[in-house]
Amino acid sequence: MVSSACHQFSLPPTSTSSCGWTLSGGRRSPVASGWSSRSRREDCPVARPQPVLVNLPEKHYEGTNVREIHISGHAVATAQQFLADRPEEFHCLVITDPGYPFPEEIRGWSKDILHLSFHDACFPADCFDLADLAAVRTAITWAEGRDKLLVACHAGISRSSAFAYVIGCLDRQPEQALEIIDAARHRPNDLVVKLGSKALGNDRIWEVFLDWCRAYQIGDSQYRLRFIEEWGTKLDDA
């Protein structure tokens, strides 16, 4: 069974913010242009490569909290294509860039919607609004207990996969939650993962993620060393 435009996972069983967020209810012509945080520089301006649509196999598990999590992109229309096939079945966590229009067509196909707005970046810069602890905590609290969840960022690569992993850690070990992520496709946003680890009070969420990055050669050591040096103590004191 193949999901036509979305990376789908169902999870395995277990043994006001500066980012600006809004809660809204759901009610439908897709847009296109995508980007990837790891393929772009962390300075300004930001280059936007052409969008890529992918077909990825489904994985089926049974979970106890969030039973299904689907990772997708709203600007490459994978979220819209998926929801059109399964209307009013999923709650949606939508992450947009500040100033980027909300994909209104998603409302007609979704249940509850949580909208977060921040850039897909990990380092402070004058032109970036970063994820913060309040936004990540809001997403975690909102997702808890919603059994079917679609997480959609711009391209379905970085912010969405990071949130999917963190949310998956609500009721399972990080090693199990990592099964949500496809190393060939996803590049989880480091800052979201680090903040999620802090929000859930579980350092292993970050440590297991780093081990996964090393195992699949995700990113580079100098980038991650810079991230740890710049954010380590600041996030601990947040």
Account of the protein in words:
The chain is of the alpha/beta class and 238 residues long. It has a single domain, classed as Alpha-Beta Complex (Protein-Tyrosine Phosphatase, Chain A), CATH 3.90.190. The protein is built from seven helices and eight strands, in the order βββββαββαβααααα. α2 packs across α5 and α5 runs antiparallel to α6.
Q: Helical region count?
A: 7
Calculate the mean pLDDT score and round it: 78
- Helix and strand sequence: EEEEEHEEHEHHHHH
Derived structural class: alpha/beta
Terminal CA distance? 44 Å
Please count the beta strands (DSSP E, at least 2 residues each): 8
Strand content: 5-15%
Number of domains: 1
Let me know the CATH homologous superfamily. Protein tyrosine phosphatase superfamily
The CATH architecture classification is Alpha-Beta Complex
Helix content: 25-40%
Give the C-level CATH assignment.
Answer: Alpha Beta
Low-confidence stretches: 1-5, 12-63
In the CATH hierarchy, the third-tier topology is known as Protein-Tyrosine Phosphatase, Chain A
Cα-based radius of gyration, to the nearest Å? 16 Å
The biggest sheet amounts to:
6 strands, mixed
Shape: globular
Main sheet: which strands, in order across? 2-5-8-6-7-3
Write the layout of secondary structure elements.
Blueprint lengths: L1 E2 L3 E4 L10 E4 L31 E2 L10 E6 L4 H8 L5 E6 L16 E5 L15 H11 L4 E6 L5 H10 L5 H4 L12 H10 L3 H13 L5 H16 L2
Parallel strand pairs: 5-8, 6-7, 6-8
Antiparallel strand pairs: 1-4, 2-5, 3-7
Helix pairs in contact: 2-5, 3-5, 5-6, 5-7
